[in-house]
């Protein structure tokens, strides 16, 4: 286990019995799960400070080990006690904030080689088994529950991400939402609808899209027309064929009538018969 060998080597000189080895192991499990040791004994001291190491007097009492811990991210404080009962150690862990208690009994001979106390590779018989016992029975339930929830959430997020990638063609560069041809096309307003209709007559001068244009064409005005066809000519005004079929034609003068002659009531101008005028 990463870090345990370094810790054990640091305190190997003070380990004198198998119980010390087990307490050192449990201490490392506390460190690994986010706690830091702040001292020994039941009462706080002015010299208390967070540390991954064991305090100098951690095993001064072989009958009763007492260590205090603090959560590395909160103000939660824990009190760990280990009582020696024949060939076993009874651990008791109390949350000083909530008074919640958990306990664990370790049979020393099942987990420690008493004749290998100063050889880290051989001192523990089953580190994995001991670690599972400490995690399942001694560590605070809230701590374990939080870690389990975090692990489940992480696993669920990974599964959801994998499912999404499978649905999108397993392309890490594809934008969410599927293929480009799928989905709803954006709705663009008609540029000739209000309030964008300003200047619409310039875009559609003949009014072919509805509404008025800016050019008045009698032949394309949309209103009912007579059967007048300028290409057939206008008597006394235009000969037949002067206007090509279908060409635009703006009529001038009265259509379908002869040009009026002089009215009998018209008076000649003054001096009409004066040759010098």
UniProtKB/TrEMBL annotation:
A GO molecular-function annotation: proteasome binding
Bias-annotated ranges (Basic and acidic residues): 142-169
A GO CC annotation given for this chain: proteasome complex
GO biological process: proteasome-mediated ubiquitin-dependent protein catabolic process
Highest taxon, organism lineage: Eukaryota
Keywords, in A-Z order: Acetylation, Cytoplasm, Endoplasmic reticulum, Methylation, Phosphoprotein, Proteasome
Region (Disordered): 135-210, 230-277
Subcellular location: Cytoplasm; Endoplasmic reticulum
InterPro entries: PI31-like, PI31_Prot_C, PI31_Prot_N
Domain PI31 proteasome regulator C-terminal: 181-254
Domain PI31 proteasome regulator N-terminal, first and last residues per copy: 13-129
Function according to Swiss-Prot or TrEMBL: Plays an important role in control of proteasome function. Inhibits the hydrolysis of protein and peptide substrates by the 20S proteasome. Also inhibits the activation of the proteasome by the proteasome regulatory proteins PA700 and PA28.
Protein family per UniProt: Belongs to the proteasome inhibitor PI31 family.
Protein name: Proteasome inhibitor PI31 subunit
Gene it is expressed from: PSMF1
């Amino acid at each position: 286990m990463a870090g345990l060998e370094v810790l054990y080597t640091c305190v190997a000189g003070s380990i004198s019995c198998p119980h010390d080895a087990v307490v050192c192991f449990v201490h490392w499990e506390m460190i690994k799960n986010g706690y830091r040791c702040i001292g020994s004994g039941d009462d706080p001291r002015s010299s208390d400070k967070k540390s991954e190491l064991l305090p100098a007097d951690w095993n001064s009492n072989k009958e009763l080990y007492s260590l205090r811990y603090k959560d590395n991210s909160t103000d939660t404080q824990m009190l760990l006690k280990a009582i020696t009962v024949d060939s076993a150690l009874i651990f008791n862990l109390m949350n000083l904030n909530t008074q919640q208690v958990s306990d664990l009994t370790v049979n020393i001979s099942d987990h420690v080689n008493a004749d290998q106390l100063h050889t880290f590779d051989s001192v523990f018989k089953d580190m994995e088994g001991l670690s599972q016992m400490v995690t399942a029975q001694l560590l605070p339930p809230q701590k374990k529950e939080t870690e389990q929830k975090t692990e489940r959430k992480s696993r669920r997020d990974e599964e959801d991400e994998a499912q999404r990638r499978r649905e999108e063609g397993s392309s890490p560069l594809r934008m969410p939402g599927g293929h480009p041809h799928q989905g709803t096309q954006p709705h663009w307003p008609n540029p000739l609808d209000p309030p964008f209709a300003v200047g619409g007559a310039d875009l559609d001068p003949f009014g072919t899209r509805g509404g008025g244009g800016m050019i008045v064409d009698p032949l394309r005005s949309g209103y009912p027309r007579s059967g007048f066809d300028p290409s057939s000519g206008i008597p006394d005004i235009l000969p037949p064929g002067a206007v090509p079929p279908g060409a635009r034609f703006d009529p001038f003068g009265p259509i379908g009538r002869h040009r009026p002659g002089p009215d009998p009531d018209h008076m000649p101008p003054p001096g009409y018969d004066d040759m010098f005028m």
